[in-house]
Amino acid sequence: MTDLYYIEDDPDIACTVKEYLEQKGFAVTICATLAQAKHALKMHVPVLVLLDWNMPDGRGDSMCRWIRGGWKELPIMFLTVRGDSSDIVFGFENGADDYVVKPFALEVLYSRILALLRRAGNVSEQYLSCGGFRIDQNRRSVFGSSGEISLSAAEYQLLLYLMENKGKTVTREKILEQVWDVNGNYVNDNTLTVTMKRLRDKLNQPSCLKTVRSVGYRMEDTI
């Protein structure tokens, strides 16, 4: 299924859109507040965000700016209750890719979603998230709650491999094979120990990075 987030505080509208889009093959997660949506995005990045303009804890334009701060290419579609051109222009200025004015026909919304996804592609695949940290694979950048984190090439590859296997315990042998030996660079076991220590220090000893004693490591969501 193709997953998307629908940020909407009206339960009737949200449920109607969710039921329709799920019949079309989408997996829809409804977020009733901006805070809930931010938490969901830190855990997982969908292929698209549907964003209502007026929310109980803020406006859609502020949410759009927040999303763009971490996921620059993630498609965002505003759903605005008014056809006010100033709202629409303001939305685009803050990073929206498209908009639909309420009330809207579900068929129209569906066709606009498909068109936007065709233009954007599956952007969500470039982002990996875990425990409040995220990787932008296209830019080879790592971000935490306080901004971008500078990592060496080995530290980045180690974190990337762990995030690609989020929720799984990976052995030290497998990490050495995939992160170093795959490039034909023989290293000893101490190299992983040192690199892991440096990575943990730069991530401020994150609780999401677990040591599985005598086996290896595991990344898992903790927030």
From TrEMBL:
GO terms for molecular function: phosphorelay response regulator activity; transcription cis-regulatory region binding. The modification 4-aspartylphosphate is found at residue 52. Keywords: DNA-binding, Phosphoprotein, Transcription, Transcription regulation, Two-component regulatory system. Pfam families: Response_reg, Trans_reg_C. Residues 3-117 form the Response regulatory domain. GO terms for biological process: regulation of DNA-templated transcription. Residues 125-221 bind DNA. Gene3D superfamilies: 3.40.50.2300, 6.10.250.690, Winged helix-like DNA-binding domain superfamily/Winged helix DNA-binding domain. Residues 125-221 form the OmpR/PhoB-type domain. SUPFAM superfamilies: CheY-like. InterPro entries: CheY-like_superfamily (IPR011006), OmpR/PhoB-type_DNA-bd (IPR001867), Sig_transdc_resp-reg_receiver (IPR001789), WalR-like (IPR039420), WH-like_DNA-bd_sf (IPR036388). GO terms for cellular component: cytosol; protein-DNA complex. PANTHER family: REGULATOR OF RPOS (PTHR48111), TWO-COMPONENT RESPONSE REGULATOR ORR33 (PTHR48111:SF1). May play the central regulatory role in sporulation. It may be an element of the effector pathway responsible for the activation of sporulation genes in response to nutritional stress. Spo0A may act in concert with spo0H (a sigma factor) to control the expression of some genes that are critical to the sporulation process. This is Stage 0 sporulation protein A homolog.
